[in-house]
Amino acid sequence: MMAVPESREPEDDPADVSRETWSSPDVDTPIGAEAERAVRLMQAATQGQPPRPARQRILTIANQKGGVGKTTTAVNIAAALALQGLRTLVIDLDPQGNASTALGIEHRPGTPSSYEVLIGDIPVETALQRSPHNERLFCIPATIDLAGAEIELVSMVAREGRLRTALAELKHHDFDYVFIDCPPSLGLLTINALVAAPEVLIPIQCEYYALEGVGQLLRNIEMVKSHLNPELDVTTVVLTMYDGRTKLADQVAMDVRAHFGDKVLRTVIPRSVKVSEAPGYGMTIIDFDPGSRGAMSYLDASRELAHRGLEEQAR
Ligand SMILES: Nc1ncnc2c1ncn2[C@@H]1O[C@H](COP(=O)(O)OP(=O)(O)OP(=O)(O)O)[C@@H](O)[C@H]1O
Ligand SMILES: [Mg+2]
Hints:
Function: May play a role in septum formation.
InterPro entries: AAA_dom, DNA_Partitioning_ATPase, P-loop_NTPase
Family: Belongs to the ParA family.
Strand order of the largest sheet: 3-4-2-5-1-6-7
Bound molecules: adenosine-5'-triphosphate, magnesium ion
Distance between the termini: 37 Å
CATH architecture: 3-Layer(aba) Sandwich
Region (Disordered): 1-33
Number of helices: 12
Structural class: alpha/beta
GO molecular function, one term: hydrolase activity
CATH class: Alpha Beta
């Protein structure tokens, strides 16, 4: 059982620094630390690391629990990789369109989107949009039309494999990374995403009931693997919204690491108000506030993800 949290303090207290992600013994003022982080981020951009994966990587970001950081993780890891020189695509597969909003991508009704791609009305290229903030970052947006897709897909031929078929057309685009942001459900949209990708990334919020429902998610992944996509594997787990002031967050992190072992990234994403403010400006935290702890943690997470992938592909 999980421990009861200690009393909470206001968010973003200076003490709320991800112990696992960021600490510098040489910098003892918040402004100094922020400046140093911004410099690190700019260096990452100019150094152009990490290297490209040998083969395109497609990751489905799934957890049927709502509000655990799926979209935030998708857009920020994608933006961090693009900043470092990699061609990256985010496919918004959630009718809420949160990933499209966070990337500053047009997604009014009528915009060519993941809905038309899934239903087969348009070639996938027609729905591609480039980020206003990074020329290497692209998005296939979601409009509200996607809300009807779960039902429309039911009667369609090869309904679980439609996204996979559509994505095959994208091979000329040379994307290094494709992230598919799923809605908080295990319906046909999420199943399409699981069929289309070899890798699953599960974000887990460092809160009460963190692992609730994960068993069901894993059973669904196993089912898709045995019937529809033998390549499928959970390769990555990301701990999100970590609040270092609570014992609960540590307890959850320990439970998740005990459960998933080395699939869990060492980098932990801290809870930070700025991360939640960025989408309101149509920006990722990488563009909105490059000197913030949130930006640095997503940069670190992106590098870890990229380096692990290279090791895997080398095997
Ligand atoms: N590290 C963070 N610090 C503070 N707030 C965060 C952080 N990560 C995400 N949030 C906020 O938490 C809320 C849920 O995050 P997000 O939308 O990424 O989750 P989700 O799993 O995609 O949700 P849904 O299931 O509705 O699609 C959002 O308001 C987001 O801005
Ligand atoms: Mg979301």
